[in-house]
Structures are given as C-alpha cells and as structure tokens.
C-alpha cells in the first residue's frame, strides 16, 4: 500500500509562518516514521507545497494526479490562513491559498473520489467570517508494528477535520498550530498504545478546547 502525504503550508506568512513550518515538519517526520515502522507494508508518496507554491492550482492538481490504489491511504494537511463568508454554506473553512481561496469541502470531495481505503484530511486554519492568530510531546517514534497495522493497514476510516468551528480562529505558537500539534501528539500516543481514530480526534478536540479556554473547538466528520 502507498501512503500519500500531501502538505500545503503557508510557511512564509509573517504572522504564522514559523508555527506553520513547525506543523509541516512535525507531520512529515511522523508520517515518515509510520512508513518506516510499517514492516514494508507502506511506501511513502510525499508532496509538500510551502511558501509561494501554495496555490489552488498546485494543491488541487496534486490531488487530481494522485494514482491511488484501493488499499492506499491519503493524509492531507493544510496549515495556513483561512476564513469563511456569511454565505458559506458548509461548516468547513475556506483555505487562503495564493491568488484565490480554496474551499476545504472541494479538497474533501476530491480526496473522497480517489476511493482510497483510508483518508485523513486536516485543515488547521481559521474559520471565522472575514481575519488571524495563529507545542508537541516529544515521544519516541519507535511505534510497534501492530499499532501501525491497526490504524493504517487494517482500517477503512475516512475522516476530515478542521481546526475550529465556523466563527472561530485557529490559534498556535512558534511550536505549531494547537490543532496540528494536538493531532500529531495524540496520533503518536495512539500508536504507542491501543488507541483508535475516535480517541485521536476526541482527545485532539478536548486538548485544543482546554488549551484555548474553549475559544477554539475542532470539528470532524466521518465519511
């Protein structure tokens, strides 16, 4: 099986660039280690757009051109600015890709249409009607193969999540966005124990709520 990792990170933004760069680096490191520990069951296809390359054309083009097998896994992370309009129909944010924004729902729809066995799509960005503001437990990455098998090889889970609900901002610091950091931390914990995807996303939700005094609540859906 191939694990397709697609990261779109606004690393050059003067406000949130440092935080976003940490999210990108942390996610790449985690996924590379998961593949490394998969006993050859997973190979990695990594696509990273950072800085000036985070255009809608690059992002959607990369998803369109993915050659996805029925047993493959897709992990998508957007880390950057986001917003919504009063008229935005869905609960998902608009991601501030260069030139013009991209609806996260468009990305979710395209990823779903690839018919991968499993996908995790994440948007760590604001979701408030038009503005922004933007940490990690250092656990060892020697994940047991059985746990990788449980969470990345034997499942058909399909989940999309964004860092906050409509009307909220996505917060962070120089260590990364609170949502991305919490997700990475909780996925690591699950891979070291008997956690599952529900635990990962519920714990991520409560961690971010606690970290932000209930100002930011991540949202997720299963498909």
Structure keywords:
single chain; 223 residues; six-stranded mixed beta sheet; three-stranded antiparallel beta sheet
How would you portray this structure in words?
With 223 residues, the chain is an alpha/beta fold. 35% of the residues lie in helices and 22% in strands. The protein contains 6 helices and 11 strands. It has helices at 17-36, 56-64, 104-112, 145-153, 178-192, 197-211; strands at residues 2-9, 43-50, 73-79, 82-83, 94-95, 102-103, 118-124, 158-162, 172-173, 176-177, 219-222. The strands form 3 sheets. The chain has a 6-stranded mixed β-sheet, with helices on both faces. Strand 5 and strand 6 form a beta hairpin. Helix 5 packs antiparallel against helix 6 (197-211). The longest helix has 20 residues, at 17-36. The chain is globular, with a radius of gyration of 16 Å. Residues 131-139 have low confidence and may be disordered.
